[in-house]
Specification:
By secondary structure, the protein is of the alpha+beta class. The protein has one domain. It is 32% helix and 19% strand. It contains six helices and eight strands; from the N terminus they run E-H-E-E-H-H-E-H-E-E-E-H-H-E. The strands form three sheets. Strands 1-8-2-3 form a four-stranded antiparallel β-sheet. Strand 6 and strand 7 form a beta hairpin. The longest helix has 18 residues.
């Protein structure tokens, strides 16, 4: 069985389930998958998440003050809901309509840096929240040359990113962890 790339779906957001349903209808259940371009290779989600997490790991390695701040302030971190903490280190545990992966990546990167949370409250890692500085749109990607620079979609639709940039560019920094995660996505279908 072979797979072939047919699209660059980009960011799904709250439309994830709707877009996945559309793919099921269009290509058949289990006949499509989301993968990531990594140079000349196409990699699967576990490898993409490891690379995403590595961005946080490298960031904490070079920003010890921020690592110290989050471990001394937070008892844990969350993204979309406080229930996110139940995922602990498992990227497959997704209980909300949006994927929450940066909270898991932060936990794993903190642990890989030999630290853990000692604070007294949960820290919400979202724009305009206490943990905003750790949002994936503000974390520099450690291998920026590997970020795909071509045209992608936004919530399943074509979009002119020059006129209407995606949120990770509008609110964040160029060459962020989020930019890698969203812009390197590809849609593959099975060739039978």
């Amino acid at each position: 069985m072979e797979w072939t790339v047919i699209d660059r779906p980009g960011y799904f957001g709250t439309k994830r389930n709707e877009i996945h349903q559309r793919y099921d209808t269009q290509f058949g259940k289990n006949n499509w998958r989301i993968s990531w371009q990594w140079g000349e290779q196409i990699i699967q989600k576990p490898e993409a998440l490891q690379i995403y997490e590595d961005g946080y790991y490298e960031f904490f390695k070079s920003n010890k003050k921020i690592l110290e701040w989050i471990t001394q302030t937070a008892s844990d971190v969350y993204d979309t809901a406080e229930s996110n903490i139940a995922s602990k280190f498992n990227y497959n545990v997704q209980e909300t309509s949006n994927n929450h992966i940066h909270d898991i990546a932060i936990r794993r990167a903190v642990l890989r840096n030999g630290k853990w949370f000692k604070g007294h409250h949960l820290v919400h890692v979202r724009p305009e929240k206490e943990g905003e500085t750790l949002g994936p749109h503000l974390i520099p990607f450690h291998l920026p040359g590997m970020i795909y620079r071509g045209k992608i979609k936004y919530k399943g639709e074509n979009r002119d990113f020059v006129i209407n940039p995606p949120w990770w560019l509008m609110m964040g920094i160029e060459n962020s962890v989020e930019q890698f995660y969203q812009q390197n996505k590809v849609l593959e279908i099975k060739i039978i």
